[in-house]
Amino acid sequence: MLLSEAIRSGSISSTGVFTAECTNEHGDVVTSSIDLNDFLGNENGAFKYDFEDKSGFYRNYSTSCESIRLSGTRLHAQLQNLFGVPRNAVIQLDTILAVYEGRVIKRTIPWTKPKIKRELANVKTFCKGTIWWKVKENSVLSTICLDDDDDPVENDIDLNNVLGNYGGYLGYGKNAFQRTQLEIAGTIQNNTPIIQAQLPVGHTRGGMVREESNLDFLHLDDLLCVEDGVIRAILPEGSIRSPLSSCERCSDLNNCCNLPVLEMDLPALLLNSCPTCELLALSFKMCVPQGALPIPDKQSSPGAICSLRYEIAPSHPRPWILEFVYFNQLLDGTLQERHINLMVYTEHSTPYIGNSLHVTGNSRSHDCISLIKSWMSRCNTQHQNCSPQANIVPKRLVYIGLAPSDDIRILITQGKPLAYACLSHCWGKTESIKTTQATLLDYQQTIPWDRLPKVFRDAIEHCRLLGIEYIWIDSLCIIQDDREDWRHEALQMASIYGGCCLCLAATSAKDHYGNCSIEGTKLIKVNGVDGAGSSCSVFVRPARLKHIYDAPGIDGIDDFPLLRRAWVYQERMLSPKVLHFGPEEVSFECVESSSCECGAIEKLLQLSVSDKDRKNLIYQGRTSRIGYNDRVFWMLVVSIFTQLDISFGGDRLPAIAGVAKDFQEHQLRAGSPVGSYVAGLWSSNLVNEMLWDSTDNLPRPSTYIAPTWSWACVPGGVVYYVQRSRRWIAQHFNILEAKTTSISGNPMDEITGGYLRVSGMLREMHWSTRQVGPANRRETYWWPTGEQYSGLPASTKPSSSWGKWRSDYNVDSPGPHQIISSETLYFLLVAGPEGLEGFMGLVLRSLPDPTFGPLPVFQRVGTWAKQSKFEIGDAKLTDLVII
């Protein structure tokens, strides 16, 4: 029964447990609870539910939830996205929950409104068109339905043709019940039909044999309908057993519950005349490595088991998924379970199997180069925002010509306008060719081909194939042992990358000796006859290619080491067009759209952003120059940038200077100037931007990088708690002066000093820490001066005037920045959230510094925020300096 039909009242706890009062089939009210954390997760700020529960990833949504409420059967929450920014999320609980005997249960098939042709008046749901039904022992559903004249019509339908057992759960598709010893029964709940089945689990997804069974439920309105008294499946009855004609050996290919289809040896499969056997054998050879171990507890099995998953949807046929499960033995002797999914598809869709795009597997091939040129041509002719932004030509470029025989050399451009590409790559820990003061003149004559690392050679070859004669490579176009030249060029990144016609990104290479190319993605082609008897060519390739928009920490992020580098962030953001060379395919992104060879990247983007404004997608790291106001935009940029890896802490500000310059110029053109740039913050929004929090408890660097009120002074990531819909309003706080000095006089260059002179409510505080929990986790508390303190044991609950404060760095780390608990600290009230009760401010440490005369001088060491009114107490309005 639908939750919305049975529920009388419901509530959701702060820990994510849903409690509901529902009516059962007798009209009695039953109270039950279900923990949604067991199967509901957070995917980048949106609810995600895994109905097959295979990944185990989509769980524990409440751990990243800031607020949660229930509106009818719709669950509303603010879920943090990958960068800690809360996003409004909503899910209809009918889609994931059902009611059985008055109890709330988890659905195993997503509920949607039945896909019935509503334009036909004689089509009714199963519930409305059926007056009696019963499931027989042979899995045949007997029914009495009403025709259009309300006369009763008896008819039967074999559930084997429309329903299957998928690892102990009911699912769509032809999958003979009787071969899995089905135990099935039906019940009526308030005139709502429910199928109940006791399904043996058989092989789990990992191939392990299990004898236990699972009880599962299904609402028949989701499966069947009635047309003029005749019962029929919403999805069509029956299905072919293979995309190609099949023999007895592979006729049970889609029985994925208990199917060791590859018990025969590979030569037997290849010699068999059945094209499906051939497809299985070639796919097995392609994806399962030699030496794969037999499935445990199944001695007769070969190195893998195989299953086929598909959806019966003739109006929109989809590719089929072929899954292999096998085991590898690790060095310590333990078995490692591995899963590989292959996509089975055709070039042109058939009634039985859908089509998909080919992946060339060779980025130098004619087909791939033609595809890249078509992406660039479409961008050049149809997109208004993708033209090169800058008018300044780099001081140096590498001339590469168009022919393999052309000499490669450094060219001094002298301001001459030239069309050029840029290379974005990881330096890694290996030494490679670079321009120095000693080699500059030689490289202006020629650069030996054999001196170039593979990433450089790959990039040059692709530029030549695309008709680009010049390329900018940082290690060759910047004199690496000339600090002044390096500093000057680093400040020109906005112009260099913004002015290129294409940026080639060696996205999957961890250093110079990786690939800036695609070499050898496998593709299988098998010819045969489809289920309709027509000639058919079927292709097989990896089903889930890794994409640049895959979330960090999820499958695939280790395959894109380039995207973890802080310097690369601005290269990707500023380039109007980027061509990514991933591990399996090339992909293309510009300001307005993104494409890849397999076509799946468009679906990933549809999760969060419209086609018209790709750069609004913070998820992909190409934050928009439009669409966000300046207050939120820059803080999102900083939140993303600081999570990335950087080798030298002193490079944090230079590595984002190009984005800062581009943003400042854009806001000025838009009539919304952001003011002066002070150590990574903007003077027009300083109150909000100084309220950052550190996400890592790392030691503060011993060398000076930036003032302590700047996020650049601490290693690791920072986050902001400012939302788009609400800003922080200063409370008794004024910024009187903000000033920085840099090594060259350019505020976006390396910082040599800086200070804030402010006026605000300052209060003296004391602090202490306690050990909490079995892991001795430390919690740092503090309390106003004057309140009695006699030690804080672990069992003590602090009084309401106490609070936790978050340090910017590891204050226990030995050195000049270490703070001991006996030291007095200070709290400076800064702001409160607009329209809400609460406050946030800075935790300060006093410093003896006579530079500013009578004004007291402090360093920032942390923040403190609380959702209550600030008690002024003995706080005093004070003019002070923060350095």
From TrEMBL:
**Residue ranges of the Cyanovirin-N domain?**
13-100
Enumerate the Pfam families for this protein. CVNH (PF08881), HET (PF06985)
> InterPro entries, from UniProt?
Cyanovirin-N (IPR011058), Cyanovirin-N_sf (IPR036673), HET (IPR010730)
Domain Heterokaryon incompatibility, which positions? Answer: 420-571
**Gene3D superfamilies per record:** Cyanovirin-N (2.30.60.10)
Which PANTHER family does this entry report, sorted A to Z? Answer: DOMAIN PROTEIN, PUTATIVE-RELATED, HETEROKARYON INCOMPATIBILITY DOMAIN-CONTAINING PROTEIN
Q: What is this protein called?
A: HET-domain-containing protein
- What organism, scientifically named, is this protein from? Hyaloscypha variabilis (strain UAMH 11265 / GT02V1 / F)
